[in-house]
Design brief:
10 strands; alpha/beta; two-stranded antiparallel sheet; 10% strand; binds flavin mononucleotide
Length: 383
């Protein structure tokens, strides 16, 4: 199958992904929070960014590669941390880490991944970044960072914009047992959704049918009496303070990226605390439905902080054109969550490779249309 013919855009994989996934899994992947306004504003605001082409430049051969923290990357984008990818496709984490490594773009392993650091580190190789939700138990934090380092992850991404869980209304409506002691328990509705989505269910069953927060289960000591989601909620919700960020900075000797910044003062303080880069993000519209689209905040923060600070961007990016829009709005680098997950849900083992192919091709084509050969030149194309 020629995938570029069948799925030339990320958006062409959205409906097949929805068809393959049981509703409760699709809701986990695709929904925002509340009534989904922040999520749709992200995409709307990005679509409103216009770029101005220049002509008379002969044949344009764009170079999308860059150096970041001393590492060479083939393109200015990477895979954002997304929890439980193995719920979307068996071994989803390993499949995407492999695709990222082949594409020479970063793969960020989530704290709440379904695969462990020790497995994914060697697959991601030099492309591995590790995302931390700060655990309230600092011994757990130190152990996670030690394991990340030992597994070959060089860049740490600390996510700061989840002070508590969001309400996940779409998942509730889909019958997911939110708040239950056993989040994976088979309610009759979830069972029915599995029965009516056999390709997902059979693949899950062939893989043992079990989903687990592989990096965290070991810390939930027998006898504490918590099921794993209560444990995770207790550990990861509302633990982060500026002092704690400083402790993480002191513990991690590699590049530190702080993800989830919207307010200029938070940006300034995170840099003061030793962040090497900030991700301007509203978590894909999954936390606060009134959050501003991060693409409207990005140029303001860039202007206030000047050109030398490393600013990354995510939330709403669905194409190479969107990546160009973010770079033209002040980003040095872009992360994508759902775009890669739609590819994974639609195409499994080939999904990450194909999404990377589309994004690289679209970005290069955008640069040709704009008449720019370098990422630096792209920065001044916003109309
Ligand atoms: C299903 C799903 C799970 C996510 N899990 C995490 C996570 O574990 N850690 C994290 O820092 N961000 C998580 N995010 C947020 C992403 O890293 C990223 O900020 C967001 O997806 C960007 O928006 P986009 O999906 O529109 O690209 C998750 C996003 C999605 C869609």
């Amino acid at each position: 199958m020629d995938m570029m013919q069948k799925y030339p855009r990320i958006s062409d994989m959205v409906v097949p992904a929805e068809r393959r996934l049981p509703k409760f899994v699709h809701a986990y992947l695709a929904a925002g929070t509340g009534i989904g306004q922040a999520m749709s504003r992200n995409e709307q605001a990005l679509s409103e960014v216009e770029l101005m082409p220049r002509f008379f430049r002969g044949r344009v051969a764009p170079d999308t590669s860059l150096e970041l923290f001393g590492q060479h990357y083939a393109a200015p984008f990477g895979i954002a941390p997304v929890g439980l990818q193995s719920l979307i496709w068996p071994n989803g984490e390993a499949l995407l880490a492999k695709a990222a490594s082949a594409h020479q773009i970063p793969y960020t392993l989530s704290t709440v991944a379904g695969a462990d650091l020790e497995t994914i580190g060697p697959i991601a190789g030099d492309m591995g970044w590790y995302q931390l939700y700060a655990p309230s138990d600092k011994a757990v934090m130190r152990d996670l960072l030690k394991r990340a380092k030992a597994s070959g992850f060089k860049t740490l991404v600390v996510t700061v914009d989840v002070p508590g869980p969001s309400r996940r209304e779409e998942m509730r409506l889909a019958g997911a047992p939110i708040g239950s002691r056993n989040p994976m328990s088979l309610t009759p509705r979830v069972f029915w959704q599995c029965m009516t989505h056999p390709s997902w269910s059979l693949a899950a069953l062939a893989n043992g049918g079990k989903f687990s927060f592989k990096n965290l289960v070991r810390y939930n000591k027998e006898g504490d009496g918590d099921d794993i989601t209560t444990f995770i909620g207790r550990q990861l919700n509302g633990s982060l303070t500026w002092d704690y960020l400083a402790e993480i900075r002191a513990e991690w000797d590699g590049p530190l990226v702080v993800k989830g910044i919207l307010h200029l003062e938070d940006a300034r303080q995170a840099l003061k605390a030793g962040a090497d880069a900030l991700v301007i993000s509203n978590h894909g519209g999954r936390q606060l439905d009134a959050a501003p689209p991060s693409i409207t905040i990005l140029p303001q923060i860039r202007q206030a902080l000047g050109g030398d600070i490393k600013l990354f961007f995510d939330s709403g990016v669905r194409s190479g054109l969107d990546i160009a829009r973010a770079l033209a709005s002040g980003a040095d680098f872009v992360l994508l969550g759902r775009a890669f997950m739609f590819g994974l849900a639609c195409l499994g083992a080939q999904g990450g490779q194909h999404v990377g192919d589309i994004l690289k091709d679209e970005l290069q084509n955008t640069m040709v249309q704009l008449g720019v050969t370098t990422l630096e030149e792209l920065k001044s194309t916003r109309k």
